[in-house]
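Appendix C reproduces, verbatim, an entry submitted by the partner laboratory led by Prof. M.T., so that reviewers can inspect both the input and the predicted structure.
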Amino acid sequence: MQVMCEILHVTRSAYYRWLKQPHSPREIRNNQIAEVAKQIYEEHDDKGYRRIRDDLEGIYGITISDNRALRICRSQQIKSRIKHRANSITKGAQKPYHIAENHLNRNFRADAPNEKWLTDVTEFKYYEGPEIKKVYLSAILDLYDRRIVAYIISDRNDLPLVLQTFDAAIQKEPEAQPLFHSDRGFQYTSKKFCLRLETAGMLQSMSRVARCIDNGPMEGFWALIKREKYYRRKFTSRSSLVEMIHNYMEYYNNRRIQRKLHIMTPMEFHNHYFVAA
């Protein structure tokens, strides 16, 4: 043993300390945290180290730094899903009835619920044998709490889809008169949709041509749902795809905590406003 200590350049006392406790308290704690991190990842395999760190703090009361969370996740081969570029499905062939100014002007801050709403439509594909089919998801996002106020799923990307989404939002928030922002999609420039906004007393705002960042938070939401639950998966029925969308919307609003919302879910942050007011 003496020869081994000399070769390894350690003292006998250090060797006996190691023999009694081969792992440091920090290593033991990291292993404990790693078990919790694996549990979080097994439940939601779309999460990377940042969201796992947020869950550790927000759900389990374990506060660690991002760098420590990254090291622990790397040790467990935990990786987030790869981001993909968003695909625009805006139709430009029809002559618009109305084009609004960009009143939002990339000011994505809101001081209260229902002050600013964003909207858009995106597509999802599923397979029936060799045939590729699509469903379209229309949603309205509140900039204050980032909650999805309303959404509608349809087999057609048409005017009724966005009108139904708008009507569903008004049914939930009948007193709301937010600044209403969208891109220049044919639905949003239509006469019927503009009349809907006028009747509700809302000011319409539109992104500039080819400037997706003007509707950035909405585009960011599409990236979330697709990266976390859609990309790298193959849906072989409409029902399974629609079920995924419904489940994600409930999860996003009520269980997906966000750093921008001070480690709260959109609905928790929404309700917190009225408690603090």
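The chain has two domains: 1-76, 116-276. Additional entries are available on request from the coordinating office.
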